Amino acid sequence: MKDSDSDNPAGQDSEREALSQLRVKIDSIDEQIGELINARARCAQEVAEIKKRHSADGEISTFYRPEREAQVLRRAMERNTGPLDNEEFARLFREIMSACLALEAPVKVAYLGPEGTFTQQAAIKHFGHSAHTVSLSAIDEVFREVASGAAHFGVVPVENSTEGVVTHTLDNFLGSSVKICGEVVLRIHHNFLVSDITRVDSISRVYSHAQSLSQCRKWLDAHYPRAERVAVSSNAEAAKRVKGEWNAAAIAGKMAAELYDLNLHAESIEDQPDNSTRFLIIGADEVEASGDDKTSIVVSTRNEPGALHGLLEPFHRHNVDLTRVETRPSLTGTWNYVFFIDFSGHVSDSTIQAALSEVSSRVADLKILGSYPKGVL
Predict the structure, then answer these.
(1) What does pTM read for this prediction?
(2) Predicted confidence band at 159 (pLDDT cuts at 50, 70, 90)?
(3) For 265-317, what is each residue's pLDDT tens digit?
(4) N or C terminus: fewer CB in 10 A for the chain?
């Protein structure tokens, strides 16, 4: 004798009734969500009108406030009671804020392209899909676009957890007036992509950026040891090439796969599962304190004994948490060096001001690159 609901009309009726009640409840919640989103959007429009009325020339370059955005996201996650995790919860709020901001004034964001790169993914993670993103071919171009006012903000990579710093990004700060306005940390997942015409058992060539090929070396050794590994300018370029080659594959992110209509033959093939890249948001203006901030500076020391100790000692004495110290050759002379330093806190903090005042008196030059909200996720 069977006792499953499939053979029990009463059980089926009970299931249908329970599902029907839940769907009515979901419909009601959806209606409330829609009303509240539009109410928020109307508030955003009112904010824009107030800002325009009180601006000196009747127009403001951008309505985006990095410290305000960070505060909103942090509060949203603090109120999150699940079952959605904080990352997903913050992503949903980011898209709502992005759409509302677009009603105030579109934000133009330049990024190191081409389309489909991890840098574009970082730009969307930080600004949302409603921002107007512009692909540029070099880091220098992103800096120039922001410095000239052609873009409100820019997104550039600065360091990878396995490959280290992006020196070209650091060098651009030495001669630029732009400020660091934020940071984005992106988990990097590499995927093995093929096209509809690819013969998977005959792959003899794998395209990707040199760093991605390096980060997936063990997987390639195990699965395609005889395939030629061809380094190209970007993972997006690798994905583009695969479209017309039956014997080739690419290593790239899911965004590139979607952009070029490729299939994910294998996912997350990176050798290090915690592989992450940190990106910087650059802009023209300084950012006010958000309550949980980081500051970046570049310092040129005098060529004398104890110079490095003199540079670092005030931070230790004032209990300032240094999160990164990087050395780069100076552009002003052979065998001269500058130090890029990140630390917790905002330049408006009295402790930070005291430490920087002492450091400034001990070094040849000190430049504050920016104080900005720490990456929310």
Answers:
(1) 0.86
(2) very high
(3) 999 999 998 889 999 999 999 999 999 999 999 999 877 788 888 899 999 99
(4) N
The pLDDT tens digits of the residues spanning 57-83 come to 544 456 788 999 999 999 999 999 989
In the numeric block, the tokens 């991890």 are attached to 118
How far is residue 120 from each of residues 113, 123, 143, 204, 259, measured CA to CA in Å? 7, 5, 15, 29, 12
Contact 279, 184 (CB under 8 A): yes
In sequence order, what E strands does 226-305 have? Answer: 228-232, 248-252, 263-266, 276-283, 293-300
Give Rg (Cα) of the chain. Answer: 25
Q: How far is CA 39 from CA 34, 44, 76, 100, 297, in A?
A: 9, 9, 17, 10, 41
- The torsion angle over the Cα atoms of residues 50, 53, 57 and 63, rounded to 10 degrees, is 10
Closest C-alpha among 326, 316, 319 to residue 349:
319
